Amino acid sequence: MGVLANLWRLARTGATFQRTGAMDEVLEALEAPPALRAAARILGWPLAPLGLAGDPALPPLPRALTALGPAYVKFGQTLSTRPDVVGARLAAELSVLQDRLAPFPEAEARAEIARELGAPADELFADFGPAVAAASIAQVHPAVDRATGRKVAVKVLRPGVERAFRKDVDAFFFIAEVIELMLPASRRLRPRAVCRHFAQVVATELDLRLEASAAAEFRANSRDDPGFAVPEVVWNLSARRVLTLEWVDGLPMSDVPAIAAAGVDLRDLSRRVIQTFLRHALRDGFFHGDMHQGNLKVAPDGTLIALDFGIMGRIDPYTRRVYAEILYGFLQQDYRRVAEVHFEAGYVPEGQDLETFAQALRSIGEPIFGQDASRISMARLLSHLFEVTERFGMQTRTELILLQRTMVVVEGVARTLDPQVNMWRTAQPVVEEFMHANLGPAAALRDLRRTATVLARFGPRLPDVVERALRRAAVAGPEPDDAPARLGPALAGALAGAAAAAAVALLL
Ligand SMILES: Nc1ncnc2c1ncn2[C@@H]1O[C@H](COP(=O)(O)OP(=O)(O)O)[C@@H](O)[C@H]1O
Ligand SMILES: [Mg+2]
Domain ABC1 atypical kinase-like, which positions (predicted)? Predict the structure, then answer.
């Protein structure tokens, strides 16, 4: 992409920000010095008419971004999920962005399907209908799979969307560089790193095979979850630019009166939203990272249905255990234990004081538990926790930020269903279930068994290893005859461990 084209995009973006009043907000977020803000105002004023007007009904920043096009909107949406980067106020303002667009023509969707699946759309699908939803990256059509007669939802990427996004993302990097150059203070916000994060998010959404595999994995994990469902992927009708899922009928989650009228128990559904999410995060370490109402449906029998698997979060098993212990500690109001967990996990750098840290944790927990149950928020607890751990020198990790962010959304959805829902009492059984399965004696035995399996794999080589160790010990010692007695405690320990592990492996 030529520098000229990027300069043009920079000028147009700047002028649009100026015209919509978003410039001031952005300069403030970037901590621009007053002189620069004044200069921007003076220089920007004559340029403003060159910018796009946007929709005056929107707040300045969403107004500027919607005027500039889909990639900008998507960028704003992504930033709204990163309050750690743009600050809570801007994140909240950006969260009103929705990328609902006019659908592209059905004929183009059919052409795309033919190209991707290698046969005319009419041969593969019957009753291919007009788009039910259209966003910046893709749109969804209802149809019937001719081979099985099953109703399906066909998600098709917008024609040329990869190229359009690539151009805009290129311009974003250029703008980020310019900002970093002119506003050294902005480097704290790492504009280029933010662009990289965005580019990565978009890249996964631009390949529907990744969404298909996420859906399939999520479905397999949650197969036995009560009252929860994920549509099945129709693999033979899916490719990079087309994703076909089993169609699911249900009421939109946003239509609470209709859900109630259908006879669904709202309190039960509210609890299920929270518990299902937590179970996925803790038990599977694989959770839906975009659980807003538009991506959830409720079947007539009350089953909660998840859609849209473009943003998923992963947490490794170790972090899951640490987090469950932390949540459990908070639930028990055992702040010292929570502090110990942080220290044991190495989350808090050495040299910090355990008691002081526990005190800081109490300052988070007590006010929250002192509140009326309907106002207790787990998401708030997590965000306070991140603040405190950062103060004590720990860096918050991206996967936990996504977890916290999703928890905000999940709590919001749960509250629309049952304003009185008590997050903690709802979370408790899931956390305890996980603790029981992962931290009790049964779990210890399972860990031991896994260790034994690994050791057993070395089985055929063990005699050799032991013999060599013995020989080495013998050579080192002055009296070869009582070499075994001289074995270092480490080797003795290892041998005992191996023997014990072998015994366990045999028993289990
Ligand atoms: N399997 C499905 N069955 C029924 N409707 C679906 C299905 N998948 C998607 N939809 C409809 O299409 C809309 C957009 O799909 P989604 O996957 O959320 O796309 P986007 O990534 O554009 O948000 C959903 O809100 C839902 O109404
Ligand atoms: Mg969606």
Answer: 97-342
Q: Give the dihedral sign, CA 207/209/212/216.
A: negative
**What is the rounded distance in angstroms from the CA atom of residue 470 to the CA atom of residue 467?**
5
Q: What's the pLDDT tens digit per position in 454-492?
A: 777 777 777 787 788 788 877 765 544 444 445 555 555
* Amino acid of residue 201: V
How far apart, in Å, are the Cα atoms of 313 and each of 130, 174, 210, 233, 399? Answer: 32, 29, 13, 19, 6
- What six digits make up the tokens of 430? 């899931």
**Strand partners for 306:** 296
Dihedral over alpha carbons 220, 222, 226, 228 (to 10 degrees): -100
Query: Could you tell me how far CA 454 lies from the centroid of its own chain?
Result: 32
Distance 98 CA to ligand 1 centre (A): 14
From 113, 94, 78, 77, select the one nearest 22 (Cα to Cα): 94
List, as one string, the DSSP characters of 251-306: EETT-HHHHHHTT--HHHHHHHHHHHHHHIIIIISEEES---GGGEEE-TT--EEE
Cβ atoms within 10 A of the Cβ of 218, count? 19
**In percent, how much of the chain has pLDDT > 90?**
43
430 C-alpha to center of ligand 1: Å?
A: 28
The closest alpha carbon to 409, from 254, 290, 312, 304, belongs to 290
User: If we measure between CA atoms, which residue out of 459, 469, 472 comes closest to residue 499?
Assistant: 459
